[in-house]
Amino acid sequence: MYxxxxxxxxxxxxxxxxxxxxxxxxxxPFLVEKKNFEQIERCIDMSTHLLKHPSMVEGQGFSIYFxxxxxxxxxxxxxxxxCVYDIFKRVREPKTNSYVCNVxxxxxxxxxxxxxxxxxxxYDGSIEETDFFGKYYMPLCTTVLYLQTPKNFTGGExxxxxxxxxxxxxxxxxxVGKYVRFRGDMYHxxxxxxxxxxxxxxSIVFEQYIIPKTKDKFVVQDIFTESxxxxxTGEMNYR
Length: 239
Fold this sequence. Notes:
Elements: H1 2-17, E1 20-21, E2 31-34, H2 40-51, E3 61-67, H3 72-78, H4 82-91, E4 98-106, E5 119-122, E6 136-137, E7 141-148, E8 154-155, E9 158-161, E10 168-172, E11 179-183, E12 187-190, E13 193-194, E14 201-209, E15 218-222, E16 227-230, E17 235-238
Helix pairs in contact: 3-4
């Protein structure tokens, strides 16, 4: 009996210490990869459209905050983003109801001295919704579809680590048409990409959440509204 109470107290202590509310069911996979998820020609068409889209500010990308809704397809079409909705339909996870889509451009580095344009390691939590205890909801998962890369490059890998684990779980090389899904409580970022070409690394990233109550939001805005330069790692940490 006393042992059971001790175990419960330890579990409660760890729950209180955590900053985030996790929603991952037992056995939910840490990583899923699918090559050739989208045809190359379709990726080229989407890249051309999105890079010219009015929401694409200074070639950095843009974000779409939205909730599940009956008229969601019309909302995307009304902003000339039907191609993004078509991808969302295919990657949406069951029971999720709130989302952040980042149309993300990672610029290229031309030499090893470039430090400021990699995506620093972070946990996703863009919706900034909290539970009863004030803990931020983590996504059930984050999904990535790579739309564009240079033909010849080094670096640019997505790195993943398990929750509060310093050991790298996986490195994912960007490949056009490839789909990646990882658990929403994984620490991740993007290594610098080096190439002499002018073609940037472009991807569509969906943070997929399960929250008790949605607000029927649909907002398109600039990407990376907050950033912080880490002098130790030489990376920009985006939130």
